[in-house]
Target: DNA 3'-5' helicase
Amino acid sequence: MEDNFLSSLNDAQLRAVKYWPETPLQILAGPGSGKTKVLTSRIAHLILNHHLPPFSICAVTFTNKAANEMRERLTKLIGKERTSQLRMGTFHALCARFLRKYAHLIKLAENFTVCDAEESKKIIQALLKPYTAYFASENLDLQPGRVVSSISKAKSKEQSGSVFLEEVVRTEIAMRQRNGLPLGDEVEEKKTIDRIIGEIFVEYEKTLKRNNALDFDDLLTYGVKLFTKNDETVIWCRHILVDEFQDTNITQYKLMKALAIARCVTIVGDPDQSIYGWRSAEVGNLSKMRRDFPDTEQVFLEENYRSTAAILKASLAIISQDKSRIQKSLHTSHPNGFTPVLYQVQTEHEEAAFIAIEIKRLVAHMGGAFDWGDFVILLRFNALSRVIETALQKEGIPSRVLGGHKFFERLEVKDLLAYLQVVDNPNFIPAFKRAVNVPGRGIGEKSVAELIGRAEKSNQSPLAIVEAICDNRAPDIKPAVKRKVAPFVAVIRSLRAQAHNSSSPADLVRKLVDLIKYEEHLKKTQSDWESRWENVKELITFASEMEAQNQAEEAADAVAGGDDLIEMSTTPLRQFLQASMLSSEGDNQSEEGNKDKVTISTCHSAKGLEWPVVMIPSVDQNTFPFYRSEDTEEERRLLYVACTRAQSLLYVSRATTRMVAGETKLKELSEFISSVLNDNGLKNEMAFFSQQIPFFTQEDRATIATVLQRPPPEEAEVQRRVVTFERSGREHPMQIYWGGGHVAPSRPKNAYSTGKASY
Ligand code: ATP
Ligand code: MG
Model:
């Protein structure tokens, strides 16, 4: 069985898996060429044929979802036990795990709370408040998102708040001197946006510190600190492998280097798919690696196994418009398949209706070739999903939003986690604020602020303050306040006692739900309490799953052993909270129950994944490239990434008008598509996009099945149906041809034809 998995690889892939087991290796190749498959196979090969212990292998993926997929694939190749011993996950998860274990080595309190992106943003929002009047008087505008991203960028360069601020002030002074402007008090009074960002950054750092919290960027920077200064913490690592390397940032590169203590590094990547420049990713890491590891070997893979030739050609036509790009070869032995469709309509509602109806048509009348789960709608940004979701709902199509569902951001989940966070880290104020008045105990915002103010003044946690009140150690507090906070304190104490006994996190959640009568609270306060109650149950399931996984990881650590370092004992509760916070990156939903739904996702979240049918709406200027983006080429690559997710059918569409913030705006076709349509060099080769609705012959449908490696579809008869769609509030009838073409009396010019409307 051992070498079976190697037999499905082509020569280049096989070389990438087998050659150079101890040499730094870069596997560079286009989408769908099997990079992730090779990485997985290489791990299996190192374990099965080179007998590396699984715990000595570190595999880094870009998302939790990708890590789960890799885990699934590896379980098939090397079995569950060995897979569970691998150190596998995102850079964030890896850092969190080791920081928890060795917090004391870098003077970190081991009960730190991981502060997710939403929480960070809330802190920033609060810090922005005092500037409101100043912004109004100076006619300035500063959105929290901009502050978040500036801070994150600075942190990825390992800049602290004070260094950032000093640099801004220095630049401002130099500019004033150059322009002969006065210095001194006036500089202090007139604050630029950058200076305000700097000031907020400094305060933000203080807030995190006070709360004993680390944000996502901190996890990485502290990780670098831990790994570079304490060799003993990385000694277990014999081989590190990184997927999607083109999107790593400077800090992640440093982490990789620190972990590559044995100098065995394998990275896979594709510069054409680098889409995270806006989040400080550095394509330059590829050449940096070759400088740091001069003996690096390179393998190029050139065969695409994912898509039909027509999809690949159209995608390559898009990316090759970037003239500065190094041209690479990528081919497929798949059949040509159907020409990608470019569909243009008048309004975004028609566009959404088209997408919904087309999906329905493909599912109902393609001889069983497709299920709902075979479709993905890829959006440039989340806000575009509203109209699409409504259209799908109207047609009765089940859908789910990938990464947008954000289980861990739901009210009920956050309520319960907040209680547990208070138990684990009483200094984490956001959790205290949330839990203290759930269910309603009549403790108003003002009282909460007072309690927190008291805590800050006396340098204690707010929990310590309310405990003192309950124990009559705060005589100046009114008895009414004591009555109100007493039940909260009782719940926390009871949970704390149970957590001390190392009780399982699932049991803790169950107990909490009982103690605060949470089901009744939901019934009283939420109209959709039933589905929320389901989420509570799901949280308990997640808690028990995490416990099992953590036990496996701990067992692996015990096997790894070898180092004489003192490890902090992590409580099951702490591990559970950490897993929840890291999952809030948004992509760790269970796949069960989603397999039969149409997926709606952003293009960014779809990275590395594939679907039989991909639909990309809104390919207009302003959306592709996104008007706020500073890097047009990165936007082009993003469209390329989106198109190359498709295996058998690709649709791009756009509306000529679109409502933006309540106003109807005219929209042009995306330059990324029009440049392909107008490129004389490409024109003679073939039409990359068809502007008609596909009419599938039996042969087309057989091709689709071949590419998807599915059994040939049944034959289907053509039927003509009339469906209605809405435009300007009026219903319009539309005739649609469903089904395969071989029995059609004559092939219609356009499978969609309407009486009045201009389809
Ligand atoms: P991306 O750049 O989008 O992340 P990738 O290079 O990582 O793509 P994979 O996801 O590993 O590509 O592979 C794409 C598809 O091709 C998968 O379905 C994979 O199983 C299949 N595949 C890869 N190599 C082979 C092969 N040698 N034979 C058959 N199928 C293959
Ligand atoms: Mg991949």
